[in-house]
Amino acid sequence: MLRYIYTKYSKRHLSKWTVLIFDVINTMFMFVCAFIIRHNFSSLGIWEYPLLKYTLNVGVLALLIFYLNKSYVGIIRRTSVHDLVKVFWSCFIVSFVLFLLVVLGTRYQIDIARMGRIPLGVIAIHFLLNFFVLSFGRIFVKIIYESVRYDKQKHENVLIYGAGETGQLTMVSLKNNPNVNFHIMGFVDVHHAKVGKTIAGVNVFELEDIDKEFILKNKLEEIIVASNEISHKKLQELTDFFLSHGVIVKRVPPLDKWLNGELDLRQIKKINIEDLLNRNTIQLDDVNVKKDIRHKRILVTGAAGSIGSEIVKQVLQFHPKEVLLVDQSETGLYDLLNDLKPLNRDEVEVKSRLIDISNFQVLERAFEEFKPDIVYHAAAYKHVPLMEANPLEALRVNVFGTVNLTQLSLKNGVEKFVMVSTDKAVNPTNIMGASKRMAEIYTQTNNSLNRTKFITTRFGNVLGSNGSVIPLFKKQIEQGGPLTVTHRDITRYFMTIPEACQLVLEAGAMGNGGEVYVFDMGESVKIYNLAQRMIRLSGYELDEIDIKITGLRPGEKLYEELLAAEEDAIATYHPRIMIGKVREYGLEDIESKISRLRIVFNGGDIYENVALLKSYIPEYHSENSPFEELDNVIENKKA
Q1: Domains of the chain
Q2: Listed range (27-41, 149-163, 335-349) with the worst mean pLDDT
């Protein structure tokens, strides 16, 4: 019977006017009951009062109070503490008004509608009865609805990590979900004062209580992390444990991200790989960056790339005068321009130019036309194995393209030139890293001319960038594997694209010229462990998708560095940004080397170009590369 009623009426809600009429009738009936209780269930003495008149007057009074206090508007099946508080105050005000009428009637002989003869005991009993019945009725309907719904609907067994305010609000949101019935198995909390107690009838466990036996016995399906205090290390351990037992791990966003102060269940997302990296939230000095960018003409090279496009999006938030997008990718620029339309709320003028930065003449026309105040240089070839196979292209774009931009910035009076470099420029083992190190040296040396502030930013891999390992693993998982890892012990630093670009803007704003800024990348991540986590996060067991060790690629090394052995770091006011003390070079010497490198480049001999670059950068030693033989030649000459 109950299932039939649920199936037929579960999508409907009781009219608020029906609830109001029911509450008024109940109030009148409870008033009669209060009279009967007051007179010890005896009719003697009751009839000396105009009970019918009293009851009708109480009904009118209740109708007025309930209507004004809106105690009838809540959805009965969703009754909350807030609804019960409204019912309490409505019942209290009705009783209080009756009390005033009695006092006035007895003390001041102002017997309004002859209500002054009501015994005070009746009023007290009526208040208690009325509040109890109205509250119990609502709770009873909710209990019946929930029990039938639990029986009828699909339900999921869930644990909530964190028994604080966020965890409790998460529980309420889950229980109020009309589509899926979440069975809250309990809270998990690290505070011993809460462990062993209950919250709204739900047990609070400590993490040690949740073992394999608990998971199997309770058929646990999900754990939702609803704590902002959990460390990245603890989150990694918790995720690894639950994923290994087939339990889905999800996370609640911080309170300030909730929609209109309420948690939307769509915001509870599965833990992703970015959540498990040792990254803390970056606090950007908006005032400093805004002061640096506001009303300036900004030129961004490599604007269609992962880093360049994010720099553009963030720059637009700080009200520049104009932005010029420079890239050689037609499709990339077209897509970026479309992406920027909804973001460009201030309607900043955005221009674009299809330019290969190694083409000096075309680049020169763009500088003369646009006259930039700040240049963010993110254009570069960055894929190590590809550049190892095409070293002349790495030199053409990464070195000579940067030389072109540097010279044009000096010529056109650019205030700041911020170069995006890489950790692969530190003790380079490949042509890509060596070419970026040469570019660093050139820009840093030209800072001595005091016409343009040249600033270099150096960081590691960015999550989600074109060609990075995360998108590759996701694609390989979608295809059923295997995931390809070059070496079981290989490690890398990781940073999200937005935070990397935030630090680029921050470093650019704080720079006085000549600095090589190094970003705190957190702890390095073992790529093999990363692959395992991504398999489990995708809902697979480790034996379902293979991880294949393919061997180190040309130019690849096991671990990256942000500073060379002879380089130190100086702290800045930003805890995530340091200044690397790098070797300094003379301007004439560098100009001479670039001229010689350009002559050799035009000759087209690959080995001669790489050998010359190695002579300029003594710390450049090739690994897993055909150019290792050049290192042997150099070592023999030294000997």
Answers
A1: 2-149 (no CATH), 154-271 (3.40.50.720), 286-461+497-521+561-616 (3.40.50.720)
A2: 149-163
